[in-house]
């Protein structure tokens, strides 16, 4: 059964840019109040403030916290605040994990790059981009904020099965993230909570631009997509809104492609 999302709350981890930003705005357009965690320097303060104003301009609340989403202190603080704000009105309807902060360093040195990935960099990447999903879900369930009908979405990528020279740590993190999604889906099924990973097609975001090899990758992706364009953050936001309207938890434990058939077309010639 589909229902209106109006008046519910979402929590977006990584809300200030890229896909997380688009999801926050898209859900706000559906009448969802937005709590967002972002990790930005003072140079982006005005931009984030404008985003919060844009969300409020859609007639909903916006509560943004500039902090490390992978830190336990951030979770403790925000879970307590969300319990006070949302506990009596249905808790968190939608949790979005869209954290793109990791090390883009090859495992071994190569020509033109004499550094190699360190243990600290690998552990940080896994903690931020994968394990934090499990920790946030644990704490929100423990606080009674994820309830029957709630949806959890984690942003993954085709990098789990494709190779880029500097993407090893992030690829490992995304693979772990998808594993966490499957485990959480099984554990939360009796509670009526759905957990899925969304695999966006190639999307030009600040995170993508940080990948050293991104230019060639983007060009190939644009050629492969039968829609004749790349995925846009708004495409993913539309998918989140659509999947969040159902009360059912039967669609769970999946990695769902939101890519315009990009990966299917990449297997052969198109056009």
What is the CATH superfamily classification?
NAD(P)-binding Rossmann-like Domain
Q: Note the beta-strand portion.
A: 5-15%
Give the strand tally. Answer: 7
Helix content percent band: 40-55%
**Helix count, DSSP H or I runs of 4 or more residues:** 9
Give the overall silhouette: globular
The H-and-E topology, N to C, reads as EHEHEHEHEHEHHHEH
Question: What structural class results from the helix and strand content?
Answer: alpha/beta
- What is the CATH level 1 assignment? Alpha Beta
Radius of gyration of CA atoms, rounded to a whole number: 18 Å
Identify the strand order in the major beta sheet: 3-2-1-4-5-6-7
Summarize the structure.
The chain is of the alpha/beta class and about 270 residues long.
Task: List the SSEs and their pairings.
Elements: E1 9-13, H1 18-29, E2 33-38, H2 45-56, E3 62-66, H3 72-86, E4 92-97, H4 119-142, E5 151-156, H5 168-188, E6 194-200, H6 206-209, H7 214-224, H8 233-244, E7 255-258, H9 262-266
Parallel strand pairs: 1-2, 1-4, 2-3, 4-5, 5-6, 6-7
Helix pairs in contact: 1-2, 1-8, 3-4, 4-5
């Amino acid at each position: 059964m589909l229902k209106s999302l109006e008046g519910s709350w979402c929590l977006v981890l990584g809300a200030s840019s890229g896909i997380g930003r688009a999801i926050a705005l898209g859900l706000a357009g559906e009448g969802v109040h937005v709590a967002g965690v972002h990790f930005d320097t003072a140079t982006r303060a005005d931009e984030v403030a404008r985003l919060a104003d844009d969300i409020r301009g859609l007639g909903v609340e916006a509560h943004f916290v500039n902090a490390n989403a992978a830190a336990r202190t951030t979770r403790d603080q925000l879970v307590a605040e969300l319990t006070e704000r949302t506990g009596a009105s249905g808790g968190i309807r939608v949790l979005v994990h869209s954290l793109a902060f990791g090390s883009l360093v090859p495992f071994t040195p190569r020509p033109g790059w004499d550094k190699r990935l360190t243990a600290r960099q690998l552990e940080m990447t896994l903690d931020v981009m994968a394990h934090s999903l499990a920790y946030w879900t644990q704490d929100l369930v423990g606080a009674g904020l994820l309830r029957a009908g709630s949806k959890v979405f984690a942003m993954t990528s085709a990098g789990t099965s494709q190779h880029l020279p500097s993407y090893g740590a992030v690829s490992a993190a995304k693979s772990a993230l998808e594993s966490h999604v499957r485990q959480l889906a099984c554990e939360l099924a009796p509670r009526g909570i759905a957990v899925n990973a969304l695999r966006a097609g190639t999307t030009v975001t600040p995170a993508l631009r940080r990948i050293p090899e991104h230019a060639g990758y983007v060009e190939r992706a644009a050629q492969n997509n039968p829609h004749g364009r790349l995925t846009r953050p708004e495409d993913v936001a539309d998918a989140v809104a659509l999947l969040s309207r159902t009360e059912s938890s039967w669609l769970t434990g999946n990695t769902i492609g939101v890519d315009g058939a990009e990966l299917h077309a990449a297997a052969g010639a198109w056009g």
